[in-house]
Amino acid sequence: MPMFATSITSVNTPKAPSKPMLYSSLFASSKIDNDLPADQAVQKRRAFLANFAATSLLPLFTSAAPVSARGFAINDQGPLVYGDDDIMSQKGHGTTSVPVQENLRYGVSRKLADKICSFNRVFAEMGGYFEGSSTFEKDVRNIVASTREPVVFYDSVSGKSLFRAPVNRSVDEFIAESKVHGWPSFRDDEVVWSNVRVLKSSGETVSTDGTHLGHNIPDQSGNRYCINLVSIAGNP
After folding, report:
1. How far, in Å, CA of 197 to CA of 52, rounded?
2. Phi and psi dihedrals of 143, rounded to 5?
3. Rounded Cα gap, residues 113 and 105, in angstroms
4. Coil, helix or strand for 109?
5. Which of 197, 198, 110, 106 is nearest to 157 (CA)?
6. Mean pLDDT along residues 6-21
7. CB atoms closer than 10 angstroms to residue 3
8. Contact, 122 vs 45, CB < 8 A?
9. What residue spans of the chain are helical by DSSP H?
10. N or C: which end of the chain has fewer CB within 10 A?
11. 173-190 in b/e burial notation, b at 16+ Cβ within 10 A?
12. In what order do the strands lie in the sheet with 204-207?
């Protein structure tokens, strides 16, 4: 894992073994391609992701699903909005123009956030990070209880709104699904598509400003966006 803290080279054991935690197997690795140029390393990992999607994700979907509805982005006719790889081109600070904000929400590490958001294309914070190292659940429950509205999650770099949750489900359901998978998990209706894109080649989910957010890892219910909390802990 290039330039990353050792804490994100390992991933917690999934809490629900019967529901495969694909995100950890895809994006957490102790092996680093130090001998490859950065662009080649990215291409190598993206090729792995595409192959994994083709060979390992298909059994998760019902046989009735059309071919175009399988793989990383299964809801081609839905609200999902694709983006070009150019969004993640090198800018003034990695793939973003500036570093992450000061004083991020939920008590997340700014150092970790900067690495995940701006200098990373495939790796993730440790699975379960949002449970043990943040105030995520407490804050989400308090906001929903006091406002009766979904919580808005903002880009840790730009401060733009990226997700609103829970939508069309309860706060208990939103938090429960996130705990099963190990990362805050959002559905199509919870994405602010004016500021979020999914790269068709890999399922990488990013902000329109070049912030790495996570990946689309679909399940039988549709698109599921497994998102790093450190990427959506910004202030408006």
Report:
1. 21
2. -65, -45
3. 11
4. coil
5. 110
6. 36
7. 9
8. yes
9. 22-27, 38-52, 110-118, 129-132, 136-147, 171-181
10. C
11. ebbebbbebbbbbbbbeb
12. 82-83, 196-199, 204-207, 212-216, 225-227, 185-186
User: Distance (Å, rounded) from C-alpha 201 to C-alpha 71?
Assistant: 10
Reduced to 3 states, what is the DSSP secondary structure of residue 219? strand
Strand partners, 152: 164
Name which of 213, 227, 154 is nearest 185 in CA terms.
227
Q: Write out the two tokens for 2.
A: 């290039």
What is the tens place of the pLDDT at every residue in 193-223?
999 999 988 999 999 999 999 999 999 999 9
pLDDT of residue 76: 53
Mean per-residue pLDDT, 92-115: 97
SS3 of 139, please? helix
pTM given for the model: 0.72
Kindly give, in sequence order, each residue whose CB lies less than 8 Å from that of residue 81, ignoring residues fewer than 6 positions away. 193, 196, 197, 198
**pLDDT of 116-164, one tens digit each?**
999 999 899 999 999 988 999 999 999 999 999 999 999 999 999 999 9
The residue type found at 99 is P
User: Which of 96, 110, 161 is CA-nearest to residue 5?
Assistant: 110
Q: How many Å apart are CA 33 and CA 163, to the nearest integer?
A: 32
Q: Residue 51: CB partners within 8 Å, gap ≥ 6? A: none
Amino acid at site 34:
N
